[in-house]
């Protein structure tokens, strides 16, 4: 049975999730990977997210690029991506989507900031069919690795790290 999650996500929604839960995400989500996530962290630290129309509170960030072929997860344990997870969680991201094992320190930071990490199987065609709208939000010069907002309906994912635990343990 899948748990329906709608964005924006509350801390109460996150509190009820546990490792191994299957979720279905609907609403707007952000997309970013190694080229753009450090830039988003810098904007947050400078207090400039609103200048780009970005509100991270209750948001989802999918570790992916947006290309004509669709979207699919990239490895979340790349240095630039994983090092963005804690600060982005602190700024309100409740759910990080990607693939692969993340470090214990990152799992602890997720718990500290009331966020979770979920893995998405690499199913580009399926996710493209569940993406109903795409909007370039910031850093267009990065092409498919720019920061996008997607409207999604029924994105499948599995909670991989929550409340100090990991599915990879």
Write the topology of this structure.
Layout: E1 2-6, H1 11-15, E2 22-32, H2 37-45, E3 59-63, H3 79-90, E4 93-98, H4 104-112, E5 116-119, H5 124-129, E6 131-138, E7 147-162, E8 165-166
Helix pairs in contact: 2-3
**Spatial order of the strands forming the largest sheet:** 2-3-4-5-7
State the secondary-structure class: alpha/beta
User: How many individual β-strands?
Assistant: 8
Specify the CATH architecture.
Alpha-Beta Barrel
Biggest sheet character: 5 strands, mixed, barrel
In N-to-C order, the SSE pattern is EHEHEHEHEHEEE
Outline:
The protein is an alpha/beta fold and 169 residues long. 24% of the residues lie in helices and 34% in strands.
Tell me about this structure.
The protein has one domain (2-166): fumarase. Helix 2 (37-45) packs parallel to helix 3 (79-90). With 169 residues, it is α/β, with parallel strands linked by helices. The protein has a five-stranded mixed β-barrel. It has five helices and eight strands, in the order βαβαβαβαβαβββ.
Q: What would the keywords be for this entry?
A:
169 residues, alpha/beta, fumarase, 8 strands
């Amino acid at each position: 049975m899948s748990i329906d999650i709608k964005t924006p996500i509350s801390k109460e929604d996150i509190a009820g999730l546990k490792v191994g839960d299957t979720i279905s995400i609907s609403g707007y989500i952000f997309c970013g990977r190694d080229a753009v996530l450090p830039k988003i962290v810098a904007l947050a630290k400078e207090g400039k997210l609103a200048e780009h129309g970005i509100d991270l509170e209750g948001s989802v960030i999918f570790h992916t690029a947006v290309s004509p072929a669709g979207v699919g997860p990239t490895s979340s344990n790349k240095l630039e991506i994983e090092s963005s997870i804690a600060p982005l969680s602190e700024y309100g991201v409740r759910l990080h989507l990607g693939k692969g094992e993340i470090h214990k320190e990152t799992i602890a930071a997720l718990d500290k900031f009331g966020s979770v990490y979920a893995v998405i199987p690499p199913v580009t065609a399926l996710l493209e069919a569940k993406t109903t709208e795409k909007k370039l939000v910031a850093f267009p010069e990065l092409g498919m690795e720019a920061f996008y907002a997607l409207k999604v309906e029924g994105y499948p994912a599995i909670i991989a790290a929550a409340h100090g635990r990991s599915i990879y343990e």
